[in-house]
RNA sequence: GCGCCCGUAGCUCAGGGGAUAGAGCGCCGGCCUCCGGAGCCGGAAGCGCAGGUUCGAUUCCUGCCGGGCGCACCA
C-alpha cells in the first residue's frame, strides 16, 4: 500500500523490534517497554539507505550509552530474508542499514503493472472527506485569489482521493443575504440607467461595468416590462437573471481550468429548507446566544473565539455567519468525517468562531480543517501588477489562462505552500524555456514518449518487466532515478497528510531533473539488448510516475511538445 | 493594542526533532558527428535575534525584532 520504501522501512523496524526483544530476554538491555522509534531515510547517502534512532531513544530508560545499545541491537539483528547488505553504527548512535542496490529496482515492474494507480496509498481508509473551495461570490468574476483556491483545492482533493479518502468537491454559492440585496439594488440601478432613468448605485453596491452589461443583456431579452413592476419583484427578477448568468460563467471558467465539482450547494436553499432557523433555535435552546442592542449574538467567546459575533441583525436578517453555521452543521449531518475549507487569508479571523460554532452545535471542531491561503501577487516585466476592483486593473482567472495557459497557471498556484505568499511571475509562467518548471517537467515526459516511439520504430518490442534483468542497471543516475520513483507513494502520503500539493509539484520537478540527467549521460536504446530492455522499463516507469504526479496537480502530460 | 500567518542563498521559495540544510532564478565557467539543447555538468553564497525543552533544535516552546493579513449588525 505504501510502496516498497514503506514496506522495507517497516520491515526493518519490525526486525529491530525483534532484536530488542531478544536483547531484553537475554538481559543485555533492561527496559520496561520498547520506545516509539522510527526507521527513516537519511539525508546523506553515506549514512546508508535507511537509519534507525532506536538506540538513542533507549539510552535514558536503559541507562546505557547509545552506541553500546546500538552494538547490542546489531548483534541481535538477523539479516536473513532482508535486502540488508551491512549494518553500521554511526554518529550519536544511529543504526545505518546498507541495502543491496537491487532492492530499489523491484519498483519498476510494480509501476508498469499498476499504471495509473502507481502512487495510490491507503492512508485515508475510505474516510469521507469534503473539500470546499473557491465558493466565490456569484456577483462577479473569478480573481487571482479564487484561482489559487481553485488550483489548491482541486489538487488537495485529488491527492486525498489518491491517498485513499472518499472525496467530495463542493462549491458553496452565496446566493442569499445582504450582498444579494446590494446586488439587486445595483442591478436595478443599472437597469433604470439603461432605460434612460436617473438611478444611483448604492454606496455599498457593485459598481463594476460588468453589471451594466448584465443589465443590458436583460433589457435586450426582456425589454422594459420591469419598470412597471414593484421594486421587490423587479429586483428578484434581475437577481435571478444575473445570478444564473454569473454562476454559468463561473462554472464554465472552472471547467476550463480543469476543476470539476461534485456538489454546488446553495445558501438560499439553506434558508428555504429552514436549516438556518433550526440552527438558530438549536443555539437558543442551549443558551449559546443572547440579545443585545436588538441583535442576536452567538457566544463565540465561550468557545475559544476572541469575541462574540452577531448572527441576527437588528433588522431581523441573519448574518452570513448564521448561514455558515447552518451550512457547516449540514456538512457534518451529511456524514463527512473530515471537512476541509479553503479560505483566503483575509478570512482567517473567521476561523476560531467557526470552530467554536461547530463545538456549539455538537460537532468535533477538530474535524473541521480550515486551510488558509495567503494572497497572490502578480508580476509582469518585473513589476507588481496592481489588482483591485476599484482601479479596474482586475486580472481574472479567464484572462490568466489566456495569458499563460492552464497548465502553467495551475502549476504556479500549487508550487508554493498555501501559507506562503505567492509571487506569480507571468513572464516566467509563459516562457517556453528551461526556466519554466512546467515545461521542464512536461518536456521530460514528452522526451520519454519520444524515446519509446523511437524504440517502436526500430522494431524493439516493449520488454516484459517481469522477465527483465535489472542487474545491468549499475549507473549512479539509474539508481537515483529508480530510487526517486520508489518515493512517489511516500510523497503522496505526506502530501495528503499535510494538505500540501507543493510536495507533489516539487517531486515532479525533481523526478524530471533526474530523468534529464540520466538521459544526458546514457543512451536508452543502446547496443546491448539486455541493457536497452532494462532502461526502457526504467524510463517507461518514469513516464507513468510523471504522468500520475502531473495528474494530481491537474496538469496534462503531453507526448509531444 | 490584540489575534493568525511568515522571516532559510543576492531574489522567489522547499524542508521541518537527527548526523555535511535543498531547488529554481540571477551570477561565473564548461557540454550538441549520438534516442528531442524546451536539455546536461561544475562553481561561489544561507536557517532574523535571545533564552528554554532535548542525547540532539533550522525544525518544538517563550520573548524580542521585521513583514503580511484580520479585529463591521460586510462576506
Description:
The structure is a single chain. The protein has 20 helices and 15 strands. The chain has 561 residues and is α/β, with parallel strands linked by helices. The model has no long low-confidence stretch (mean pLDDT 92). The structure holds one RNA strand of 75 nucleotides.
For this structure, the CATH topology of the largest domain is Rossmann fold
Number of E strands: 15
Rg over CA atoms, rounded to whole Å, is: 29 Å
Strand order of the largest sheet: 7-6-5-11-12
Q: What is the second-level CATH architecture of the largest domain?
A: 3-Layer(aba) Sandwich
Task: Give the N-terminus to C-terminus distance in angstroms.
Answer: 34 Å
Q: Classify the helix fraction into a percent range.
A: 40-55%
Poorly predicted regions: none
Question: What class would the helix/strand composition place it in?
Answer: alpha/beta
Q: What is the domain total for the residues? A: 3
Please tell me the overall pLDDT. Answer: 92
Q: Supply the CATH superfamily name of the largest domain.
A: HUPs
Number of helices: 20
> The biggest beta sheet, please?
5 strands, parallel
Shape, principal axes of CA atoms: flat
Strand content: 5-15%
| CATH class categorisation of the largest domain | Alpha Beta
Amino acid at each position: 500500500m505504501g510502496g516498497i520504501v514503506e514496506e522495507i522501512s517497516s520491515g526493518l523496524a519490525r526486525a529491530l523490534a525483534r532484536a530488542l526483544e531478544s536483547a531484553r530476554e537475554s538481559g543485555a538491555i533492561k527496559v520496561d517497554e520498547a520506545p516509539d522509534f522510527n526507521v527513516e531515510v537519511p539525508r546523506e547517502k553515506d549514512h546508508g539507505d535507511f537509519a534507525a534512532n532506536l538506540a538513542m531513544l533507549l539510552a535514558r530508560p536503559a541507562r546505557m550509552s547509545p552506541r553500546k545499545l546500538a552494538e547490542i541491537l546489531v548483534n541481535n539483528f538477523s539479516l536473513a530474508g532482508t535486502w540488508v547488505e551491512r549494518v553500521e553504527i554511526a554518529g550519536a548512535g544511529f543504526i545505518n542499514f546498507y541495502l543491496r542496490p537491487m532492492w530499489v529496482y523491484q519498483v519498476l515492474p510494480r509501476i508498469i503493472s499498476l499504471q495509473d494507480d502507481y502512487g495510490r496509498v491507503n492512508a485515508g481508509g475510505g474516510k469521507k472527506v469534503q473539500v470546499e473551495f473557491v465558493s466565490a461570490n456569484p456577483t462577479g468574476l473569478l480573481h487571482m485569489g479564487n484561482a489559487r483556491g481553485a488550483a489548491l483545492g482541486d489538487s488537495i482533493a485529488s491527492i486525498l482521493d489518491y491517498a485513499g479518502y472518499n472525496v467530495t468537491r463542493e462549491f458553496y454559492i452565496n446566493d442569499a443575504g445582504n450582498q444579494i440585496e446590494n446586488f439587486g439594488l445595483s442591478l436595478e440601478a443599472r437597469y433604470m440607467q439603461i432605460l434612460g432613468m436617473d438611478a444611483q448605485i448604492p454606496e455599498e453596491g457593485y459598481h463594476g461595468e460588468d453589471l451594466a452589461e448584465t443589465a443590458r443583456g436583460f433589457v435586450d431579452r426582456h425589454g422594459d416590462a420591469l419598470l412597471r413592476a414593484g421594486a421587490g419583484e423587479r429586483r428578484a427578477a434581475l437577481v435571478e437573471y444575473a445570478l444564473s448568468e454569473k454562476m454559468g460563467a463561473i462554472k464554465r471558467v472552472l471547467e476550463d481550468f480543469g476543476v470539476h465539482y461534485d456538489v454546488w450547494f446553495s445558501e438560499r436553499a439553506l434558508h428555504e429548507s429552514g436549516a438556518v432557523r433550526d440552527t438558530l433555535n438549536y443555539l437558543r435552546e442551549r443558551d449559546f446566544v443572547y440579545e443585545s442592542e436588538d441583535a442576536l449574538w452567538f457566544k463565540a467567546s465561550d468557545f475559544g473565539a476572541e469575541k462574540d459575533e452577531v448572527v441576527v441583525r437588528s433588522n431581523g436578517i441573519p448574518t452570513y455567519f448564521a448561514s455558515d453555521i447552518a451550512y457547516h452543521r449540514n456538512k457534518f449531518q451529511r456524514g463527512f468525517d473530515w471537512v476541509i475549507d479553503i479560505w483566503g487569508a483575509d478570512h482567517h479571523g473567521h476561523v476560531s468562531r467557526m470552530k467554536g460554532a461547530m463545538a456549539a452545535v455538537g460537532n468535533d471542531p477538530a474535524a473541521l480543517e480550515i486551510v488558509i491561503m495567503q494572497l497572490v501577487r502578480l508580476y509582469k516585466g518585473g513589476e507588481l501588477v496592481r489588482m483591485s476592483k476599484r482601479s479596474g486593473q482586475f486580472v481574472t482567472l479567464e484572462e490568466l489562462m489566456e495569458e499563460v495557459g492552464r497548465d502553467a497557471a495551475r502549476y504556479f498556484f500549487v508550487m508554493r505552500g498555501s501559507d506562503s505568499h505567492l509571487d506569480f511571475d507571468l513572464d516566467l509562467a509563459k516562457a517556453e524555456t528551461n526556466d519554466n518548471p512546467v515545461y521542464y517537467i512536461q518536456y521530460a515526459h514528452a522526451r520519454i514518449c519520444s524515446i519509446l516511439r523511437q524504440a517502436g520504430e526500430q522494431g524493439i518490442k516493449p520488454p516484459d518487466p517481469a522477465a527483465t534483468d535489472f542487474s545491468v542497471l549499475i549507473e549512479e543516475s539509474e539508481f537515483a532515478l529508480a530510487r526517486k520513483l520508489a518515493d512517489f507513494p511516500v510523497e503522496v502520503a505526506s502530501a495528503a497528510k499535510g494538505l500540501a500539493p507543493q510536495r507533489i509539484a516539487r517531486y515532479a520537478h525533481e523526478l524530471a531533473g533526474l530523468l534529464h540527467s540520466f538521459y544526458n549521460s546514457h543512451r536508452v536504446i543502446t547496443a546491448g539488448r539486455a541493457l536497452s530492455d532494462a532502461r526502457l522499463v526504467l524510463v517507461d516507469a518514469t513516464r507513468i510516475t510523471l504522468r500520475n504526479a502531473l495528474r494530481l496537480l491537474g496538469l496534462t502530460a503531453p507526448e509531444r511538445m
